[in-house]
Amino acid sequence: MNEIRAIIRPTRLEKLRTALRDLPNFPGLTVFKVEGFTAPSSLDKRSDEEELTDFSPKLMVCILADKGMTEQIQKVISDQCSTGQMGDGLSWVVEATAVTRIRDSAVLPRSKQ
């Protein structure tokens, strides 16, 4: 299994959620409120106050899915969350080597891919 993570604009969540729900066997997602800034902003000369308050609100979306769905999910994230502007966010994949469902302590099978 893989965990697909993405930092997105809050205004794109509803569009993303709708598109992900349309995927067959989509397993679900978790959303966190986060803040951050892009690297180019650190190149500008800024005051100390600006440096401490330049974070913009974003959302982190986490999806645990079979490896076979990873590419498709990342494509949906890119398609639905891109505005073509700096600050659209990032997505990345982390391999989940062990997953246990808390409800019944079932160890979920690892993907064969």
Stretches with pLDDT under 50, minimum 5 residues: none
Radius of gyration: 17 Å
The helix fraction, in percent, is 10-25%
Number of helices: 3
Instruction: Give the overall silhouette.
Output: globular
Structural class: alpha+beta
Total strand segments: 6
Major beta sheet, strand line-up: 2-3-1-4
Cα-to-Cα separation, first versus last residue: 9 Å
- Helix-strand pattern, N to C? EHEHEHEEE
Described by strand count, sense and barrel closure, the largest sheet is: 4 strands, antiparallel
Description:
The protein is an alpha+beta fold. The relative contact order is 0.32. The strands form two sheets. A four-stranded antiparallel sheet has the order 2-3-1-4, with helices on one face. The N and C termini lie close together (9 Å). α1 runs antiparallel to α3. It has helices spanning 13-21, 48-53, 70-81, and strands at residues 2-8, 30-36, 56-65, 90-95, 100-101, 106-107. The protein contains three helices and six strands. The model has no long low-confidence stretch (mean pLDDT 88).
How does the SSE layout of this entry go?
Blueprint: E1 2-8, H1 13-21, E2 30-36, H2 48-53, E3 56-65, H3 70-81, E4 90-95, E5 100-101, E6 106-107
Antiparallel strand pairs: 1-3, 1-4, 2-3, 5-6
